Amino acid sequence: MRSRGFSLFAAAFLACIVLSVTAQAKDQAKDLVLICDLKVTKRSFSASPLVISLKQDGKEAAVYDPLIYSIYGEPIPAGRKADDSGAVLDWVVKNYRDPATGRRANFAYSAKWNRAKGTISVRSHAQGYDNKPSVVYGSCREEAAPKAKPGKKG
Fold this sequence. Notes:
Blueprint: H1 8-24, E1 32-38, E2 50-54, E3 61-64, H2 66-71, E4 76-83, E5 86-97, E6 104-114, E7 119-127, E8 134-144
């Protein structure tokens, strides 16, 4: 049975990742955090929620979701290209172990965020396997990263 909206786990996970991502961005007053709710299916390689941190330098980004959390425990860097409507990101989740089969795979992702519409599309595929890429869609809301408190070091 699928639940509508966020489950209790998703809400708790979201709180943890927002704190983690915003803590990493605390020295950059104008960094932007996107919290994206993806419409995932059983056949997609994506997980929701997806949290994206866009650095104010326009070049750096980091991503975090339940899959990344289970492997790394912290956000991972993402490649970033400027786009007239928002941003295009790419990243790889390495060494994911399928709990059902024990097989390992690397998953490559690319995402296109449209700032004006508040939407995102995420394309993913398992590298080294003969499969079709999975594409999921969702919506994102923007959160400003908190400013660092004067005199405190992270």
